[in-house]
Design goal:
This protein has 15 helices and 21 strands. The protein has about 450 residues and is of the alpha/beta class. The chain has four domains: about 140 residues, Methylthiotransferase, N-terminal domain (Rossmann fold); about 100 residues, 2-Layer Sandwich (Transcription Regulator spoIIAA); about 120 residues, Transcription Regulator spoIIAA (2-Layer Sandwich), CATH 3.30.750.200; about 60 residues, Nucleic acid-binding proteins (OB fold (Dihydrolipoamide Acetyltransferase, E2P), Beta Barrel), CATH 2.40.50.140. A six-stranded parallel β-sheet has the order 2-1-3-4-5-6, with helices on both faces. A five-stranded mixed β-barrel has the order 17-18-19-21-20. Strands 7-10-13 form a three-stranded parallel β-sheet. The longest helix is centred in the last third of the chain and has 24 residues. The protein is globular. It binds 5'-deoxyadenosine and iron/sulfur cluster (SF4). The site of 5'-deoxyadenosine has 12 residues, from strand 15. The site of iron/sulfur cluster has 10 residues, from helix 7.
C-alpha cells in the first residue's frame, strides 16, 4: 500500500465516525486478578465509546492481558502475537495492545515487535483510550508507570463471564513481599488496599444483578489494610452485609494469615471454608532462599490452627520444584509436607528464572531442567493421589452446590462448586444456573465429585 493510500485509510478509521463504536476484543492470560483487570479495562474502554466483542474476527482493537510469572506464560503471548501479525496483514485497521505484567516487565522491547501498537502496564489502564487515539495518528504508545495509589476503586468492572453467578473483586493491588523467585512485585508495584466502602458498593451492585458468589482478590489478602480495617474486618463486614452471598478470597500468605481471619470465617456460614495457602516448598532452607519468611514448622503450625478453628476447611497450595539449590532431600521434604498436610488441591510448577528478581541476581539456577521436570512429575503424581483421597471422603455425603454452568462433558448435566471448592457434576433434574442445591455424592474422580439431587433445593 502506498503512503498516500495508507494516510487515506487511516483517516477513514471508524473512530472518526460519530456514533460509530469501534469494537474491542480482550484476551486474558494468567491469574484471577488479570481476569478482573480485563473487566476494569472493558469498563474504561466502554466509557470511551468502544463496544466489547467476543468475536476476535470483528475487532478493531485487540488487547492481550498478559502474565509474566513464568517463561512459558510469556512464550504463549509471543505465539499469540505471531497470530495477530497474520491478522493485521489481512485487516490493516487492526490495532494490537499488550497490557498487564508482560507489558510492565518488557516495556519498550515489546514495541520493537511490529505487531504491537501499544504497551500498557497494570496501573496505566485509565490511559488506554488516549493511547489508542494516539495510534490513530500513526504513533505507537507506551505507559508503564506504576502507581502507589491506583486501585480502580471507582470503576465498575464490565463482567464478561457468561453465567452471571460468580464474580471477582480486587480488594488490593501490588505486593510488598519480594519472594525471591517472583516477578510480581516488579510488574504490579507496591501494595495498596482499596476503600472498603467501594468494595461493599460493588458487591451490592453484583447482588442486584443476581450474582451469588464473590471472590475477594489480592496478591496477599492478609495484608489488606485501609485505615483501621484489616482483612478480618473486611471479611466480617462483607459477610454481614451480604448473608446470601457466598464469599471466597485468594491468595493468603502463610506468614500473614491471622487467627482473627480464621475465627471470622468460622463465625459466618456464608464465608466458604476454603483457603489457598501457597507453601512453595517443604524445605526450610529452600523457603529461606525463596525469602518466604516462614519455616516448614511455621507452615505446619498454621495448618494445625486452620484445622482447629475450621475443622472442615479445604486447603490448596502452590508448589515450585527445582528452585535454586534444591537438593534431593529438599525435594523429599516437599513430598513429605504434602503428605502431612494432605492438600485437597495444588497448583504445581517448575522453577522458571525471571530476570532481575532476587533469585536471578543472587543464586544460580542450578537444578537441571530434566531434574526439575522429574521432581514436578513426582509432585503432580502425589497430588493426584491426595486429591483422589480427599474426594473419596465425600462419597455418601450430602453437599451444598452453587450451580455455575452446564457440564462441559454433557448437556444433560450441570456443574458447580461446594463451599470447599470441589467441582460437582450432576444430572439437571430441573435445577438451573444460580440455584443452590443439595447433592448426594455417589462417585468421584481426582478432578470432580459426581452425584445427584438430594431431596430438593437447599
Ligand atoms: N517460577 C515458577 N513458579 C512461580 N510462581 C511464581 N513465580 C514463579 C517462578 N519464577 C508460582 C508460585 C506462586 C504462583 C502464583 O506462581 O507458586 O504462588
Ligand atoms: Fe509473588 Fe510472593 Fe507476592 Fe505472591 S506473595 S505475588 S509469590 S512476591
Amino acid at each position: 500500500m502506498s503512503e498516500l493510500k495508507k494516510d487515506i485509510f487511516k483517516s477513514l478509521k471508524p473512530l472518526y465516525y460519530s456514533g460509530y463504536r469501534p469494537k474491542l476484543y480482550i484476551e486474558t492470560y494468567g491469574c484471577q486478578m488479570n481476569v478482573n483487570d480485563s473487566e476494569v479495562v472493558a469498563a474504561i474502554m466502554q466509557k470511551a465509546g468502544y463496544s466489547i466483542t467476543k468475536d476476535i474476527g470483528e475487532a478493531n482493537v485487540i488487547l492481550v492481558n498478559t502474565c509474566s510469572v513464568r517463561d512459558n506464560a510469556e512464550q504463549r503471548i509471543w505465539g499469540r502475537l505471531e497470530c495477530f501479525k497474520v491478522e493485521k496483514k489481512r485487516r490493516r485497521d487492526l490495532t494490537v495492545g499488550v497490557i498487564g505484567c508482560m507489558a510492565e516487565r518488557l516495556k519498550e522491547t515489546l514495541l520493537e515487535n511490529n505487531t504491537v501498537d501499544i504497551v500498557a502496564g497494570p496501573d496505566a489502564y485509565r490511559k488506554l483510550p488516549d493511547m489508542l487515539e494516539q495510534t490513530e495518528r500513526g504513533q505507537k504508545g507506551i505507559n508503564v508507570l506504576l502507581s502507589r495509589e491506583e486501585t480502580y476503586a471507582d470503576i465498575s468492572p464490565v463482567r464478561m463471564d457468561k453465567t452471571g453467578v460468580s464474580a471477582f473483586i480486587s480488594i488490593m493491588r501490588g505486593c510488598n513481599n519480594v519472594c525471591s523467585f517472583c516477578v510480581v512485585p516488579y510488574t504490579r508495584g507496591v501494595e495498596r488496599s482499596r476503600n472498603p466502602e467501594t468494595v461493599i458498593d460493588e458487591i451490592l451492585s453484583l447482588s442486584r444483578k443476581g450474582y451469588r458468589e464473590i471472590t475477594l482478590l489480592g496478591q496477599n489478602v492478609d495484608s489488606y489494610k485501609y485505615g483501621n480495617v484489616n482483612f478480618a474486618r473486611l471479611l466480617q463486614s462483607v459477610a454481614e452485609t451480604f448473608p446470601n452471598m457466598r464469599i471466597r478470597f485468594s491468595t493468603s500468605h502463610p506468614k500473614d494469615m491471622t487467627d482473627e481471619a480464621l475465627e471470622t470465617m468460622s463465625r459466618y456460614s456464608n464465608i466458604c471454608n476454603y483457603i489457598h495457602l501457597p507453601v512453595q516448598s517443604g524445605s526450610t532452607e529452600v523457603l529461606e532462599r525463596m525469602n518466604r519468611k516462614y519455616t516448614r514448622e511455621d507452615y505446619l503450625h498454621r495448618i494445625e490452627k486452620i484445622r482447629k478453628i475450621l475443622p472442615d476447611c479445604a486447603i490448596s497450595t502452590d508448589i515450585i520444584t527445582g528452585f535454586c539449590g534444591e537438593t534431593a532431600k529438599d525435594h523429599r521434604d516437599t513430598l513429605s509436607l504434602m503428605r502431612e498436610v494432605a492438600f485437597d488441591f495444588a497448583y504445581m510448577f517448575k522453577y522458571s528464572e525471571r530476570s532481575n528478581t532476587k533469585a536471578a541476581r543472587m543464586f544460580e539456577d542450578d537444578v537441571p531442567e530434566k531434574k526439575k521436570i522429574e521432581r514436578l512429575t513426582e509432585v503432580i503424581a502425589l497430588q493426584a493421589e491426595l486429591s483422589l483421597k480427599s474426594h473419596r471422603k465425600h462419597i455418601g455425603s450430602v453437599v451444598e452446590v452453587l450451580v455455575e454452568d452446564v457440564s462441559k462433558r454433557s448437556n444433560e448435566d450441570l456443574c458447580g462448586r461446594t463451599p470447599q471448592n470441589n467441582m460437582v457434576v450432576f444430572p439437571k433434574s430441573g435445577c438451573k444456573i444460580g440455584d443452590t442445591v443439595k447433592i448426594k455424592i455417589t462417585d468421584c474422580t481426582q478432578a470432580t465429585l459426581k452425584g445427584k439431587i438430594y431431596g430438593g433445593q437447599a
